[in-house]
Amino acid sequence: MFLKPEPKCETGCTETTSEADATNTSTTASNSATDKAIPSPVSVTEATELLANKYNFKDSQAVIFDGWHSYIKDFSLPKKLLFTFYQLWDELESPQPVESDGLKVKYNIGFERFKNAYEEYFGTDEPLEKKDYTLNGIVEEIRYNADDNSFDFISKNGIGGTTTVALKTKVIKTEGTENGFKAIVATVTINQVASQNAKDFLGKSSDGQGNEYYNVPISEEELAKMYESLSVYEFNFTKENDSYKLTSITKV
Questions:
Q1: What is the pLDDT of residues 51-104, one digit of tens each?
Q2: pLDDT at position 32, please?
Q3: Which of 10, 58, 150, 195 has the smallest count of CB within 10 Å of its CB?
Q4: pTM score, whole prediction
Q5: How confident is the model at residue 197 (pLDDT cuts 50, 70, 90)?
Q6: Chain segment 120-169, per-residue pLDDT in tens
Q7: In the predicted model, what is the mean pLDDT of the chain?
Q8: What torsion, rounded to 10 degrees, do the Cα atoms 151, 157, 162, 164 define?
Q9: What is the three-class DSSP state of 11?
């Protein structure tokens, strides 16, 4: 039975393909077309510059209060509103005290002015509404004023200073999408003081080429924190009105 040859067609024969084979062939071709990468319209260098210059997302930045270390973990509407507010900070008039609470102040911004800035950064996919918002940052809330079509940004008062915590980032690659591109970004959060422990100082070391380095090791505990913060994100940009807008961030 196993050695019986296949029957041969002698005359008037045509090749046939089973319905299943035809379906498999079609599916494979479709998958190949779908899996084909779209060339990115933006290079890694260009994406790095866009993030740094437009979004103030630099390769190294201090982490203090509200900032990118928080935005990338929860890229929600409140975070977008906080970001937009801080980009307008230098243009705002002096804050006024909140009458009901002397520990808070308010900044007033016209609705249209704030809306235009918000859409320049994040587009129109998630439109801004004329209503109150809860932000849960240093700026705690936004109150809409119908009488003059403006926002009051309610902020904690008397907060300032610097920090030793830093967010380090790098754009690894870019990929094209149907309406724009996505940037693959690696990040790590470190405390610069962690490596400056005098009791662990072990002297200098040399690389054999005339360069000497201070040997100040980072403790296992601090390294564990650093490893824990290692993350990779997809920053998704959509082209709108001839410019790219950051629409979403997804942790990989």
A1: 999 999 999 888 777 889 889 999 999 999 999 999 998 899 999 999 876 689
A2: 47
A3: 10
A4: 0.74
A5: very low
A6: 999 999 999 999 999 988 899 999 999 999 999 999 887 666 777 888 99
A7: 83
A8: -90
A9: coil
Q: What is the largest CA-CA distance in the chain?
A: 100
Closest of 30, 24, 48 to residue 171, by C-alpha = 48
Given the structure tokens 């203090």, which residue do they identify?
A: 64
The answer to whether 136 and 66 are in contact (CB under 8 A) is no
CA 246 to chain CA centroid, Å, is 8
Q: How far apart are CA 150 and CA 106, in angstroms?
A: 12
pLDDT of residue 36 exceeding 90? no
Token reading at 88? 């307008």
Question: Quick check: 222 and 231 in contact, CB under 8 A?
Answer: no
Residue with tokens 């004023």: 145
Contacts of 221 (CB under 8 A, 6+ apart): none
Report d(CA 68, CA 71) in Å as an integer.
Answer: 5
- Count the helix, strand and coil residues of the chain and give each as a percent rounded to the nearest 5: 30, 30, 40
Amino acid (1-letter code) at residue 44: V
Q: Phi/psi of residue 154, each to 5°?
A: -90, 120
Handedness of CA 136, 163, 247, 228 (dihedral sign): negative
In the chain, count H helices and then E strands.
Answer: 6, 12
Residue 11's DSSP bridge partners are none
Distance (Å, rounded) from C-alpha 207 to C-alpha 213?
8
